[in-house]
Design a protein that fits this description.
Number of strands: 0
Strand content: under 5%
Structural class: mainly alpha
Radius of gyration: 36 Å
Oligomer: single chain
Number of helices: 3
Order of helices and strands: HHH
Amino acid sequence: MAEENKPAEKKTEAKAEKSAGKNSKSKKPGLGTRFVKFFRDTRGEFKKIVWPTVKAVMRNTGVTLAMCAVLGVVICLFDFGLSSLVNLMLSL
């Protein structure tokens, strides 16, 4: 009989150890520790940034300006066409 109770006691002890372990691990680090970790991680992320070359920046700027010009012309033509249509309808 005494041997049958030993496995049950071991299970109970194991559960008690697990619950004690959870309580000690659930404590959050201090505010200062979290700030230091945040800035350390931020610095690490900044090191991963790959900056474009001057040539790539100039090319991308040129493409952006060209697309702005093309869209400006398209919008201008669309506006001119609609205003002509409205003037035609009002003149009737």
